[in-house]
Amino acid sequence: MRLDVILRVIAKLLLPFTVVFGFYVHFHAETSPGGGFQAGVVIGAGVILYAIIFGLDEAIKIVPVRVVELLVSVGTLIFLGVGIVGWLLGGNYLDYYALPIADPIISQEVGIHLVEIGVLMAVTGAVIAIFYAFAGRGRSR
Amino acid sequence: MIADHLPALQVVLPLVAATVCAMVDRRHVAYVIALLTSFAMPLIAVALLIQVLDQGVISYAMGGWEPPIGIEYRIDVANAFVLVILSLVAALIMPYAARSVAAEIPENKQAWFYCMYLLCLSGLLGITITGDAFNAFVFLEISSLATYVLIAMGADRRALLAAFQYLVMGTIGATFYVVGVGLLYTMTGTLNFADIAARLQELDIETSRPVLAALAFITVGIGLKVAMFPLHAWLPNAYAGAPSVATAFLAATATKVAVYLLLRYFYTIFGFDVVFVQHPVAQVLLILAVAGMFAGSLIAIFQDNIKRMLAWSSVAQIGYILLGVSLINHTALTGGIVHLFNHALIKGALFFAVGGFALMAGTVRISQLAGIGRTMPVTMAAFVLAGLSLIGVPGTVGFVSKWYLVLGAFEAGMWWVGFLILITSLLAVVYLGRVVEVAFFRDPEGGAAKAIEPPLSMLAPTWILVAACIVFGIDAELTAGTAMQAASVLIEGLR
Amino acid sequence: MIEAIPDLVHHYNHWVSIFLMVCGLYIVVARGNMVKKLVGLTVFQTAVFLLYISAGKILGGTPPIIAEGYEHYANPLPHVLILTAIVVGVATLAVGLGLVVRINEAFGTIEEEEIFERGEQE
Question: For chain C, which residues make up each domain, given as ranges?
Answer without folding.
Answer: 4-121
